[in-house]
What we know:
The chain is about 40% helix and about 15% strand. The protein is of the alpha/beta class. Helix 1 links the parallel strand 2 (about 30-35) and strand 3. The model is unreliable at about 1-20 (pLDDT under 50).
Amino acid sequence: MSPSEAPHEEPPPGDSTTGSELLCDIEDGVARLTINRPEVRNAMSWGVIRGLRSSVARLKDDSAVRVLVLGGAGDKAFCSGADLGGMQGEGFLSLHDSRGELAGLFHELWALGKPTIARVQGWAMAGGFGLALACDMVVASERARFGAPEVNVGLWPFMITVPMVRSMAPKQALELMMTGRVVEAAEAQRMGFVNRVVPHEDLDREVDELASVLASKSPALLRLGRQSFYDVWDMTARDALAHLHAMLTLATMTEDSTEGIAAFLEKRPPVWRGR
């Protein structure tokens, strides 16, 4: 499990609005899931990780939700990784099993069937870095900072290796893991793992606009298209093209595809039914 701290400049705590460790707000088809532990820089306890997993499972089955925005409370940190001080006291085998919870969360985010956006306003460190990269898109404030500093405390970012190498060139990922250095938002965008960098005061507006655009698309086609994107990630080109060929035919059989083509020909906005 990734650590929440390492010997670099520490992100200070932000502001909390409620006593709950995990907040969920749903409006206009967009679910906003927020880690609400700013006093520990939104570090993930076992309870937070399991809560994220159960929330993602619930949102997957909620037809009213079309987009998920994942964030951290306060103005300073998205998530600083695992709460090392709060993740003790379990037996060896139980602790080993618990360390797999983050991997399970990554799998469930990829299998959600709906677009996901990481809203990163500040520090995204260690497991928090991996959590951001497990989302489809990362929108970052110019104040955002990213890093995998586990090596600095005698650990290694094992669990976030997969989202890291899926989000940037492998040797860039390896460099970050071996050096533990912190990357600023502009460099993160150049490295390819951040989609947009915006002025800090515009972050919510930019995230809301992107979420609104995604929520306006066909839920059925986004689900099939996004699923195919992740399905072919590790396939050979030959296997990937065969899979995508079948997915194309499947997509054309949906009601939303029929509606989209009809709306285009009739020069009117489509009415999506999500099937």
